[in-house]
Amino acid sequence: MELTAGDVADLAMGAQLFGSGGGGRTDAAERMVRRVLTHLGPLPVVAAADLPRDSSVACVGAVGSSTVMVERLPGAEEFVRAARSLERHVGSPLVAVQPLEIGGVNGLLGVAAAAWLGLPLVDGDAMGRAFPRLDQTVLQGRSPVVAAVSDPTGNTAILECLDGAALERVVRASLPALGAWAGLAMHHDTAARYARCSINGSVSRALTLGGLLRRAGSEPGGREAFLRSARAVSLFRGRVLEVRRDRSSERTGGVASVQHLVDPARTLRIEFADEYVLALDDGVDVARVPDIICGLDDRTWRPISVEELAVNEMIEVIRLPAPSRWDDPELRDRVGLETYGLADFGPDTGAADHTVDHTGGGADAPAGGRGVGE
């Protein structure tokens, strides 16, 4: 398939959805990618399995403050320099690149990077959503972990670290000197390993679901069609009563309370960090990371980020199943509640105890067990 400028709005909406309330603002990146594809033409999108097995692929994206990135907009140079530096260091030219994460702004920056590099885009990513840390990917395991970073002023560095956690620490410590954000290329590996280990199909899925979500608020039956296609569950509709934010050095995030639209005695508690990470319906665990938890404006069904969430908003909270790659216990340990500074609540109780029936005016209806898949 090919991505064109006409696809960008749908892809941007899909990136917001998979941001799970985080991943950075996409509006400026959406405009940029539309201009890039208008100027350079359609971008080929390929499956990793269709590339020569031993050919080289890498993930490209940005790391650092998305707020500063909006103020100092990225250009081609940061991402091209990072990718070419990684190529030179490992001695193997890239035949394609993949977004580092499909959620949030990196879902779009990966597209722009492929176009700027003149390479196909791999239909996949390393997270299946947005996560805040570089060690929260499904492509960990090789040592040393090699990454190239390039800042907007032209500085470029190659980092070789013992593992993903070490890379995360070193890059975060370097960001102030890099101007708060930088282009990043990492996970240089063969197409065969990408086909086996990556979260495949995430770009096309974001494009499809983003289009359905964009139309869901205005088309009859659009919300139900989206939920079916996404294998999503609507958990709760109501008014935001309280938002408490914690910006201490130990933890960035907070908690929100939502009063049910039909049953005022019922409350949803949402814990959030960079993304929404846990939802408790009257104390019952109904969604938790790595599930994709999304707060939607109840009228328009547009995603609401953790930064935008405000008292008195009417919202609907939905859960999309986590990508199946995160079922691996070793991988799941990287993205559990503990990694966000929250205590584990024990085994998942089955996240579909309370759902919203869109055909019944918001009445509660039982649903099947939670599904897991990409």
Automatic annotation (TrEMBL):
Limits of the S-Me-THD-like C-terminal domain: 166-344
Domain S-Me-THD N-terminal: 7-160
Segments of skewed composition (Gly residues): 359-374
Disordered: annotated segments: 348-374
Name of protein: DUF917 domain-containing protein
Domain of life: Bacteria
